[in-house]
Please model this.
Amino acid sequence: MNTRINYMYRDASNYKSFNTAVVGGILSETDQHAIYYCCDDDAGQRYFIPHLVGLPEKTFDDFGQYDDDHPWFEIGTAFAEVTNEPPTVDLTAEQLVKNFRAMSGRWDEAIARGQAEEQKPFPILKSQSDPNAKAKEDAVSLVKDPGIPKRIWMKASCFAPTVDIVINIPKDRDAEEYIDEYLDAILSEEVRANCEWDFN
Model:
């Protein structure tokens, strides 16, 4: 028996995209409570960022083109159900609980550190052939192994202010190559075309 996880993306215009993922094994009631209360609480509604705990994200084809796009997904109290379906993600129920506990109270910190971006495009899993899948996998792995922090500066255009961010480089990756791939994954096409960056 496995567990189906149900969650939802809702944009500022109230358009909804329903998401599901099946993990191996069963989540107990205690596990479900742990996951729910590890999510960010905003006026009684619980939010989380799926790719930071190993879950896929389905939004809309035009995600990232509007200023009100955001990385948060909603989860309800009855988000889990037992199923005979095979797992759709390489994740057990036990590991999912651990991933949520690792992110508890750190969702905003993860955004600030560049693992997700609050108002602009960030890695989204749209299909198995997602070109940003590697960046997403690296971001999830950083929850368990922070890697080597590198401070970079980034300037989107000559009119934009310089931004300093810290990116954790997986220990088995080349820093320059990883940062280049990472910025490609979180920036829109227009910003990528004009962006300058360097690191120390």
About this structure: The beta strands are 2-10, 16-24, 40-42, 45-48, 73-75, 80-83, 148-155, 163-169, 196-199.
